[in-house]
Amino acid sequence: MLLYMCGIVGYVGNDKTVDVLMGGLKRLEYRGYDSAGIAVLDATGSLNTRKRAGKLAVLTEDLAANPIAPGSTGIGHTRWATHGGPTDRNAHPHLGDEGRLALIHNGIIENFAELRAELLADGFTFESDTDTEIAAVLIGREYRSTGDLTEAFRRVVARLDGAFTLLAMHQDLPGVVIGARRNSPLVIGLGDGENFLGSDVAAFVQYTQRAVAIGQDQMVVITPDEVTVTDFSGNHVVTEPFEIQWDASAADKGGWSSFMAKEISEEPDAVANTIRGRVEGGQVVIPELAGLDELFVDINRIVIIACGTAAYAGTVGTYAIERWAGIPVTVELSHEFRYRDPVIDARTLVISVSQSGETMDTLMAVRFASESGAKTLSICNTQGATIARESDAVVYTHAGPEVAVASTKAFTAQITALYLFGLHLARVRGTHTPAFLASQVEELQAVPDKIASILGASEKIAQLAHWMADSRAVLFLGRHVGYPIALEGALKLKELAYIHAEGFAGGELKHGPIALIEPGQPVFVVVPSPRGSAILHPKVISTIEEIRARGARVIAIAEQGDAAVLPSADEVIPIPLAGPLFEPLLAVIPLHIFAMELATAKGLDVDQPRNLAKSVTVE
C-alpha cells in the first residue's frame, strides 16, 4: 500500500466556514499540493463545491473571482494524487446521492476496483478516476436505503480495505459533519458553539487550543454543540482532550522567505524546548518515563525503527545510547523490520522515531513489536498521534509544527530526545558516575547557543550554494557520528535540489566509491574534532588528501581552529567546539542551509519539493 497524506479540514459553527476551511487548508498544504477543494452548505440548504487542480493559490484565486455562498457547515481538502491524476475532476470533494452528499478522503481504498464494479453493475456512473468517489457513491446509496447518514457511513467504512480518513456532509443535515479513520490521522478541535475536524491540529489551531485524537477504526459526528465518538460497531468511545502546545502563528512563515528557512532558524529553540523540563540537579529525568525504571534495567537490547531522516537521527542516537547506557542498539528501517523475522522478545525495547507519529510503516512495525512481546517507546513531535498512543511510553519532542516537507528542526529535536533518553537510561542503569553524566548534560544544554552561532554566520554557506548551483552530483563523507550526518546531507540535497547526492562512511571510500571522484567533483566531508577523535581525525584528513589528489573539490565541516583541515580542504565551514557526540547536532546545520540555498538558487520550491509530501508511508 502506498499512502500519501492529504490535508483535511471540517467545520460546523457559523457563517465563517469558508474562512475556516481555506485558513486550515493553507496550514495543511504541506500535506498535499496537487489540487484543493471545498464544499459548503449555504443558508438556503444548497451544497456548493469548488475544486481546482494545482496549489491552493489556484483555488484561492478562483474563490476571490467567484465567491462561494457563505454557510455554517463545510469540508475542505488538499490532495496528493494517488488514484487519478491531479486534475479538476479528480480533486476532492467528490459527490454522492445525486450531488447531495460531499466527501473528502485521505488514503487509499485497496478494494476500490471490486466496489466500483458492484456500483457499475447497479447502474451508477462516475465523474472521476479516484477511489474516493467510490466511497461517496456507496455512502449515498446506503443513505437512500437507511435514511440515516451515520448508519450509512458506518456500513460503508466496514466494507473498505486499506487506509483512510473520510469526512462527509449531506445537504439534508445542516450543522453535521461525519468522519472516520483507519490507519490515517484525524483530530477533533473543540470550540465554543463550533467544532472542527482536521488531519492534524494545524487545521484549526487558529480557533481553539483544545483537541481530541480519534483512535483506530473510530467514527466521529460533530455538530456546533456536540461531539460523539464511536467505534465502527457503534459503541460509544470515551475520549481524552489535550491542549495544543503552540498557536497559529507557529505555523506561519513570520516574514521568512520559506517555511524551511523559518524552521532552520528555529533549530536552536527546537533543541532547547526538547531539553526543557527534563533536567534535575544536573541529571536527565524524563517525567513521561516515571515508573519505568524496572523495565529499563531489565532490557538487554534496543532496536530503533524509523524511515528516512528519522532513521538517520536514530543512527546518531545509537552512538550516544551505547556509549552512555552500555546496551546494544541497532537501527532498522521500519518498512523492512517486520518482513525479515527479527529476533525480539520481552527484554527488547523498540524505539520508534516519527515526526508525525502517523508514519504507516513505522506504525505497523510498532504493532509487530508489541505483538512479539517487546516493549515500545516512541519519539514523536505530534500530540495524540497514533504511534504515541499505541506505544508503551512516549517522549515528545517539542519542535513545534514543521511545515516544510524536508525535515530540519524535527531532525535535531529527534537526536536531542534520543540523547535525553540515553542519559536517562544511563542514570537508571547506573552505568556512569553522576559527575560524568552531568558533564554530558551540560554539553547538551550548550548546543542551542552553538547552533545559533552557526546560523548567525550562514552567509558563506549561502554563497557556496549559489556557486554550486550547476553541480550535477555532490558526495558526502563522514565517520562515526559524522556518517549519518553525511547521509542526512545527501538526502536533503536529493529532496530539494533534485540532483544526485550520496552519503558514504569515510572508510568505505577506498572500497569502491572512490571511482566516482573526478576533477571538480564536490565532496562534503564531516571532520571529527582532533580533540575528541585522536584516531579518526588523521584518517579523515588522509581521506581528504586522497580525494583532492584526484581532483575533488572538498568542502570540510570542521571544528573551529582545526589547523590540519585548512591546508587540505578547498573550503572550510567552521562549527563551534563540542564533545564528539554533540558534533552531529552542529555539523548538520550547514548541510540543511546548503541544501535550501542551492535549491533556491535553482529557482525551486524548497517547501514543496516535487513528488514528495510531508508524510509518506510505504507498507
From TrEMBL:
Lineage: Bacteria, Bacillati, Actinomycetota, Actinomycetes, Micrococcales
Protein task: Catalyzes the first step in hexosamine metabolism, converting fructose-6P into glucosamine-6P using glutamine as a nitrogen source.
PANTHER family registered for this protein in UniProt: GLUCOSAMINE--FRUCTOSE-6-PHOSPHATE AMINOTRANSFERASE, ISOMERIZING, GLUTAMINE--FRUCTOSE-6-PHOSPHATE TRANSAMINASE (ISOMERIZING)
Keyword Glycosyltransferase (UniProt): no
Domain SIS: 292-431, 464-609
Enzyme class name: transferase
Residue ranges of every copy of the Glutamine amidotransferase type-2 domain listed in the record: 6-225
Subunit structure: Homodimer.
Annotated catalytic residues: 6, 614
UniProt-listed Enzyme Commission number(s): 2.6.1.16
Keywords for the protein's UniProt record, in alphabetical order: Aminotransferase, Cytoplasm, Glutamine amidotransferase, Repeat, Transferase
Protein name in the entry: Glutamine--fructose-6-phosphate aminotransferase [isomerizing]
The reaction(s) this protein catalyses: D-fructose 6-phosphate + L-glutamine = D-glucosamine 6-phosphate + L-glutamate
Listed NCBIfam families: glmS, PRK00331.1
InterPro entries: GATase_2_dom (IPR017932), GFAT (IPR005855), GFAT_N (IPR047084), GlmS/AgaS_SIS (IPR035466), GlmS/FrlB_SIS (IPR035490), Ntn_hydrolases_N (IPR029055), SIS_dom (IPR001347), SIS_dom_sf (IPR046348)
Compartments, record wording: Cytoplasm
Name of encoding gene: glmS
Top-level taxon of origin: Bacteria
